[in-house]
Each structure stands twice: as structure tokens, then as C-alpha cells.
Amino acid sequence: MTGFRGTDDAGRVADPLTPESLRPLLWEAPTSVLLERVADPAVPRAEATRVPGGRWAVEVRSGDGERLVATVPNTDAAFDALRSWAADDGWYREAFSWSPVGPTAT
After folding, report:
1. Which top-rank group of organisms is this from (predicted)?
2. CA distance 44 to 37
3. What is the model's pLDDT at position 2?
4. What are the φ and ψ backbone dihedral angles of 39, each rounded to 5 degrees?
5. Structural domain spans, the chain
6. Across the beta sheet with 67-72, what order do the strands follow?
């Protein structure tokens, strides 16, 4: 997870981001947590947003513009997905069902 920071929608920041700082950031976030590279906050980045039923929508964006989203069942699963994504170990891609995100209007 080297080189990342995490910010929740209440303004709390975990920098540097570690598994130990990511977990409470997710548990205490009002509705969302954003992970971004310290050197280049634009990409890659990931965001987890609470959705009804205790679930989370996790969106990841790669450096080449690919955007994927998965709905995960709980905060622990959101932690696992984000930790794996930031560690770049590929596990998150296999562990959850991802769908492409269409382009956004600018």
C-alpha cells in the first residue's frame, strides 16, 4: 500500500495509508472513502461508498482509464478489496464480481 493516502467524506486523512489506518477509516466514514496516490492523485484511485443494507460500492480506476465497480457485502469486504487494490496484488479482481463503469460527463 506504499504511496497511497486515504480520505473519508468527513475529512479524516490516513497518510501514509496502511492496513491499520484503512480499517478504521472505513468503519468510521459517514458514507465514503477515497484512496489516491500521493504522487499523482488523479489516477489510479479507488473509492468505496456505503449503499443500503450495510453494503459498499467499490470503484477502482487504473492509470489507463479503466473503471470497474463491485458491490461488496460489508465493511470487511470493502477493506479487503481496497487493501488488495492498493497493494496491487490482483486478489481483488478474482474475489469480487466487477463491472465496467461507463464514461462520466465533464
Report:
1. Bacteria
2. 7
3. 85
4. -70, -30
5. 4-100
6. 13-14, 4-8, 32-37, 45-51, 55-61, 67-72, 99-100
